[in-house]
Specification:
Layout (H helix, E strand, L loop, with lengths): L1 H45 L18 H14 L1 H13 L19 H4 L1 E2 L3 H7 L4 E2 H14 L3 E2 L2 E3 L2 H6 L5 E3 H9 L4
Antiparallel strand pairs: 1-2, 3-4, 4-5
């Protein structure tokens, strides 16, 4: 009977061990599956789209070496690093079409209405002068007067006696209201 109990215990132990082995095997299989999935993902990520064949570039005529060397030396001394970067960029992206030269920017013309001389009245003339001048020049002279006398306080202009007459008796005016008041004194 003792032998039977020992056998049953050893069988139980064997079953437990085999279960543990089975779990270990299944865990091992699961790990292997996970590894395989991870490798497959890595391969997909690493997989690069096939490159398109670049069009054959037309061969350039070889320049004489005597002429090319001095130019290279002069350029190399002036800009050695940017030239290397440009080469690296050129290797990375093949050129499809040569770019056209950018057009020269045209200088912006002033609106003729702003450049037309206007006559300031006597009140405004005390600050900017009595000769007919364009509106833009009136504004420039006003700002020169304001900054020269230290009348600007942020966006506000603290008027002195001459400017108070221009601003309609107001002591403080914003810079945006200033143009409105000035336009009343121009004809």
């Amino acid at each position: 009977m003792a032998k039977a109990k020992a056998r049953s215990k050893s069988k139980a132990r064997g079953k437990a061990k085999s279960k543990a082995r089975g779990k270990a095997k299944s865990k091992g299989k699961a790990k292997a599956k996970r590894k395989a999935k991870g490798k497959a993902k890595a391969k997909r990520k690493a997989k690069v789209k096939p490159k398109r064949k670049a069009k054959a570039k037309p061969k350039r005529k070889a320049k004489s070496k005597a002429k090319a060397k001095p130019k290279r030396k002069a350029k190399a001394k002036a800009k050695a690093k940017p030239k290397r970067k440009a080469k690296a960029k050129a290797k990375a992206k093949p050129k499809a079409k040569p770019k056209a030269k950018p057009k020269a920017k045209k200088k912006r013309k002033a609106n003729p209405a702003f450049m037309r001389p206007v006559q300031p009245d006597a009140v405004l003339g005390a600050v900017v002068g009595t000769k007919p001048i364009p509106r833009t020049e009136i504004t420039k002279k006003l700002w020169k007067y304001i900054k020269g006398n230290g009348l600007q306080d942020g966006r506000n202009i603290n008027a002195d006696d001459k400017l108070r007459a221009v601003f309609g008796g107001k002591k403080t005016v914003t810079m945006f209201e200033m143009t409105k008041h000035v336009s009343k004194h121009v004809s």
